[in-house]
Amino acid sequence: MKKKEDQIKEIKKYRRKYYDDYAVNYDKEWWNDEDAFDEFKGFKKLVHVQLNEIVLDIATGTGTFLIEMVKSGGIGYGIDQSPKMLDHLKQKVIQYKLEHRIKDVRVGVADQLPYRDQFFNWVTCIGMFEYYPLEYIKRVFDEIIRVLKPSGKCFVDIINPYNIKVEKMTWVFKYNLDDFERLIQSYGLKILIKNKAGYMLQYLLSRINSKKTVLN
Ligand SMILES: C[S@@+](CC[C@H](N)C(=O)[O-])C[C@H]1O[C@@H](n2cnc3c(N)ncnc32)[C@H](O)[C@@H]1O
Fold it and tell me: pTM of the entire structure?
């Protein structure tokens, strides 16, 4: 158990530095990547935020997806453990004059969300799960479920373990899909849509009840 704990701590530390260093090039490279563009299209197809719905984007990075949700009428909150990635998001908020729609952008981790219970209509977490073992994802879902309204929706993505492009990616976690989907369902989340996008799988989820069932 201690080993797993240490592993998660190490990954967080490594990824924080990695994204702080990469922040300046992140957006430029992202939009040149065909797979990332596919992911963006999938997101647009699945996530329909209504006017004044409150949205939280976990691991928001430079805020590509947070900004989209806010442009659709959402009131935005973003959290990420890399201060440098968030600096770029903050610049974009000013550039697009979205200060009145983005309420809070802060440095923090996905497994300790500094928000009230049942506060959000939407919680998204994009491009983060692949860095962590499922044990960590459970903690993130504990928090997602806590802050999501009973009528709320959630959008997350994971690596598609069947995509040929991920075969050589040794630095990402490729979950067994049955395990991942059982985990989702144990939180009383229903899979509304599952979508292949680039080498990721995107999940649109809704709450069906507020109780977590115990996984064996
Ligand atoms: C691939 S980027 C995705 C950024 C954004 N969601 C997007 O799709 O453009 C991964 C992001 O996850 C953040 N991150 C990694 N581990 C995290 C954690 N445990 N808690 C919060 N943010 C984390 C990184 O700092 C980075 O900004």
Answer: 0.95
